[in-house]
């Protein structure tokens, strides 16, 4: 069976204000967002939903749905990202977080790692004063001041150069990001992976704050409060890379088992925080303890944070992550103290 996915780039171009447009035709923005990122597979979408989206984009269903194309993954060697919400190469990534949850550190770390892999990194400076930007500036090779300048720099680099581009949400609201992506496509440049960030935290309270996305990283207040970094929520972050058979079977199977464990662990953790661990049924204790260990393992020291944490940064390949997570799921580290799994690389 052919792989099928939503043509997110077409939706982004044709319907920049997708939240309002979706509501006007009776679609839930959350449903549209989940279809865009692949959390809801196209095969499970209602026909009326797809027809409504095609109508909004003024295109046919054949143009709305892409068949037979595989979304390529960019491996960051950051465990929780590669396992649960992989970067879609050439796509648009949206970060949803309030200030202080560590989103800028994650972005700086991604820039640092991908720059080492040969990507050109471009950062469009936001207007005004914002804390935490220095690490981004230090790890971006090219700093631009406006969309026009950004376009010219990318056009000069050409379509053979993989590019990472970071911009603030204000450029989404004005429509500048859509125009930039249209212009780049017009000259045959499709090698730009765009990161969108909101420095105000308003995105947390909005549906589809960035429009259609290939990858969504949702940051978690509880993880951040407990200093479990990167504080990216595995249960609400997702990517088009996860659609259909884009993942190999091993990745898909382990990822689904890990999500199931973490989902139940979070439910049990809420009970423990109120009533204590004695309230957990004996049959559930193993689930709680393994979830606790998996959550600890998913923390990771970053290279850009070494001066602050005094811990050397760690890079873990996807295959190493899959192997380690599988061991945790199967009980191989049940006798290991939770503290021994915090802020390590591979097991």
Give keywords:
single chain; about 350 residues; alpha/beta; 434 Repressor (Amino-terminal Domain); Rossmann fold; Bovine Mitochondrial F1-ATPase, ATP Synthase Beta Chain, Chain D, domain3; 3 domains; seven-stranded mixed beta sheet; two-stranded antiparallel ribbon; 16 helices; globular
The oligomeric state is: single chain
Strand order of the largest sheet: 7-6-8-9-5-10-11
Mean pLDDT equals 90
Class from helix and strand fractions? alpha/beta
Q: Tell me the number of strands.
A: 11
Provide the succession of SSEs: EHHHHHEEHEEHEHEHEHHEEHEHHHH
CATH architecture identity of the largest domain: 3-Layer(aba) Sandwich
Number of domains: 3
Per CATH, what is the topology of the largest domain?
A: Rossmann fold
> Shape, please?
globular
| Poorly predicted residue ranges | none
Distance between the termini: 37 Å
Report the β-strand fraction as a percent range.
Answer: 5-15%
CATH class label of the largest domain: Alpha Beta
Put simply, the count of helices is 16
- Biggest pleated sheet: 7 strands, mixed
What is the rounded Rg? 20 Å
Task: Give the proportion of residues in helices.
Answer: 40-55%
CATH H-level superfamily of the largest domain: P-loop containing nucleotide triphosphate hydrolases
Give the SSE map.
Layout (H helix, E strand, L loop, with lengths): L3 E3 L1 H7 L3 H7 L4 H9 L9 H10 L4 H4 E3 L5 E2 L4 H6 L2 E2 L3 E5 L6 H14 L3 E5 L9 H6 L2 E3 L2 H11 L5 E6 L1 H4 L2 H11 L5 E6 L17 E4 L2 H5 L12 E2 L9 H27 L6 H16 L8 H4 L8 H12 L18
Parallel strand pairs: 5-9, 5-10, 6-7, 6-8, 8-9
Antiparallel strand pairs: 1-2, 3-4, 10-11
Helix pairs in contact: 9-11, 13-14, 13-16
